[in-house]
Amino acid sequence: MRSPVRDADNAHFLAHSPNDDGAGVAELLSEHLRRVADRAARFAASFGADQQARAAGILHDLGKYADQFQRRLHDPRERGRDHWTVGALAALTSRDLGLFPALAIAGHHAGLGLLLNAPDLCREMLDALKNHRDKFTSTDRELLLRRFAADGCELPGVNRGLALTDRFAADMLDVRMLYSALVDADFLETEAHFDGDAQTPHRPRCDGPVLDLDQAIAALDRYVAHVRQAFHGVPMASAREALYRECVTAAEKPHRLFTLSAPTGAGKTLAMLAFALHHTRAHGMRRVILVMPFLNIIDQTVGVYRNIFGLEHGFDAHTVLEHHSLAGRRDEPSEDGTEDSTRNKARLLTENWDAPIVLTTTVQFFESLFADRPSQCRKLHRLARSVILFDEVQTLPPKLAVATLAALSRLADTAGPYHASVVFATATQPAFDALDQRVRTEFAAHGWQPVEIVSDGAPLYATAAGRVRIEWDHKIPTDLDDLASRLQEHDQMLCIVNLKRHAARVAGTLRDRGIEGLLHLSTNMCPAHRVKVLETVNSRLREGLPVRLVATQCVEAGVDLDFPVVYRALAPLEAIAQAAGRCNRHGRGALGHVIVFKPQDDRSLYPPGYREAVDATESFLAVLSGQADLGATEILNSPERLRAYFRHFYGLSGRATSERDDERALLEAIRAGDFPEVARLYKLIQQDSIQVVVPYDRTAFEQLVAESTELPRSRPDRVRDWCHRAAPYAVGLYRPRDVAPIIPYLEPVQFGHRDLESWEAEWFVALPGLEYDPLLGVSDRVENLWIV
Q: For 493, phi and psi rounded to 5 degrees?
């Protein structure tokens, strides 16, 4: 290996130590800088920031020209130091390459900090270099730039690109997008070096596949033709046809914000995919990203997408990419125990969404969109020129709405750099345009004024309205034992409640009474168990056998269930409408029956975040009942009344015009440009959670527990493989406090040589005493057990 020398006229400065476990070759720093600059520029070209990305790439490791860093490559006793701040400062002061490259460079290892203006950022970095010299590889910027130039590197010109808009959320997103291009390029080029050897020193991974849109649309058309046969003659068939045609026609519209409002059972999943593919072809866009709130919806939708775009139809194995906690569970390790190459490539592509069709969760998407760390942000540059579909958007927490709409508004701004299209799809479309003025004034100039894809939704909803009748029985609370007695009168029924303890109580009562066909569904159960329950439910429904399903809201959005009778505990109106969509879903049977009731309970009736919307629902229904008979009034399949309800909710809560306490901290952090604080506060699931492997499947459980003892000595790919295979058998629990009674029943899974304590571990296995009920899942017999 060539040694670094200090003579800048004849320097061989290195970026990385030898690859191939030390048997290969080192990487020259000049080569690494140029490679990262070139790749980052390619990534950022899709949003017109290629010059800024090139500047960031060429300067991101400027501090590696320091003698201290070069010594460290040979002597591990030399501690690591900051080698990026000098490059960020050089971007601000050398030919004025700009604020955005400087921010990206400054955060490419440590994470994004504060969005300061150029003078303040320059002052902060100069102060740090002056007062904390021992934290940096070198503080002599002029020496480093001389070595940089002598090494054949040049500073690029920057005369265009991203600039501050004076809208807080838009500016933070712009910084993240450039940052994404830089950190992904740096990840990939570093990986390419360490995947190399003496014969092939630089071995970059292959790019993800490119979708042939004509082929994809033809495959979708074939699949839809098959589905049409299955729905031939049912009342909702005409609605499905009409929605599909509307989506294909609307795809010709230019990129922007869209809504897609259609009743449950109208074929929204396939219709919005048709919109996305035709829209992508019409406007030269790059990929389709489908974002869904729940894992059970993803699992169901992935099956559809893989049927359409499978290998048997001539598509690449990685056309459809899943990014969520259960992704990869379908793949088994190869016989020799090593990671299968197909699976390994899928994992690599997942790191930066390098695929034409991506399916992910709202948690993964939005928490990445508001992140500050390189590993989370590196995929964001893929959002430019993408069609981003959000399914079941009514699940977005109101306290996150303004921040979320602002970031998406910037992506789809018709005058902005990203040229993305954003589609909000649901049967119960929230009136987010009521928040337009708040979004527009401070956070994103484009505001929130989406265009509806369906030109006239009334006929679609009118068809759906003929499927069910609604009985509003919520004014007098219903005892849960009395509710169980009512439920057992029906051979096939679905009961949805708001709390897991209510579901367990009702299901347990019915079990004690020996009710046939009883099933339960909640997040007390591991994913493998929930999948099996849904399979059993649908099988019994098809065969006409008794089936009584007691469930929480986890069945409400996107799950394809079709019961003749549905009971729904009082909830936000959109949740009641979603529940009604599980009743006579396709209009095949006699008129369905939906009963809305209010449980009797001395304790809280609602999960966190529900009360405000339930209060709005009750007051909205009270206003309607003063005008007409609720039983004779169409509410749940009336877009006008659903919209009126949402406007009533925003008006009652005051969110349309003013900032609420539950959103203030996040919005203040955005105004301050505080990336770490925004990332900390933007959480769809607020409580810190852990994953507990449970004995649902005793054979799988014992194998996973046995393998877990080997994990501290395993390679990272073996650890990832274990986590993928464990996920279907794990239940999410809120992280218990040190004194919680559940602590003795949890064994932390160790992933490294240092033993993890319970308070810092992410994965656990259940010990005897934490029982797994075959009907209810994790037992609630352990006091104060909080389940996600």
A: -155, 155
Q: pLDDT tens digits, residue range 545-584?
A: 999 999 998 887 667 789 999 999 999 999 999 899 899 9
pLDDT band of residue 325 (cuts 50, 70, 90) is: low
Name the helix (H) or strand (E) containing 597. Answer: strand 592-599
- Long-range CB contact pairs, 754-758, < 8 A, 24+: none
Q: Which amino acid type is present at position 395?
A: T
pLDDT in tens, 150-189: 999 999 999 999 999 999 999 999 999 999 999 999 999 9
DSSP 66: S
User: Tens of pLDDT along 286-315?
Assistant: 999 999 987 666 777 888 999 999 999 999
3-state DSSP percent of the chain in helix, strand and coil, to 5: 50, 15, 40
Token pair, residue 599, equals 């449980």
Rounded to an integer, what distance in angstroms lies between the CA atom of residue 548 and that of residue 294?
23
Say if domain 213-328+338-458 classifies as CATH 3.40.50.300: yes
First to last CA, the chain: 53
- Of 699, 729, 704, nearest to 718 by C-alpha is 704
Q: Note whether 453 and 247 are within 8 A (CB).
A: yes
Residue type, 593: H
Beta pairing, strands 257-261 & 451-452: parallel
Return d(Cα 727, Cα 394) in angstroms, integer.
Answer: 27
- Return the SS3 of 72: helix
Neighbouring residues of 454: CB distance < 8 A, sequence distance ≥ 6? 243, 246, 260, 261, 262, 460
Can 213-328+338-458 and 467-636 be said to share one CATH topology? yes
Residues 6+ apart with CB under 8 A from 16: 26, 27, 32, 73, 190, 193, 194
Phi and psi at 641, nearest 5°, equal -75, -35
519 phi/psi in degrees, rounded to 5: -140, 160
Among residues 53, 50, 315, 333, which one has the least CA distance to residue 208? 315
At residue 600's C-alpha, the angle toward residues 594 and 605, to 5°, is 85
Domain boundaries, the chain: 8-194, 213-328+338-458, 467-636, 689-778
Question: Can you give the pLDDT at residue 786?
Answer: 39
Considering the four listed CATH numbers 3.40.50.2300, 3.30.360.10, 3.30.1460.10, 3.40.50.300, the one that applies to the domain covering 467-636 is 3.40.50.300
Neighbours of 12 (CB within 10 A): 16
Least confident of 103-117, 295-309, 617-631, 701-715: 295-309
Between CA 100 and CA 91 the distance in angstroms is 9
Q: How far is CA 75 from the centre of its chain?
A: 41
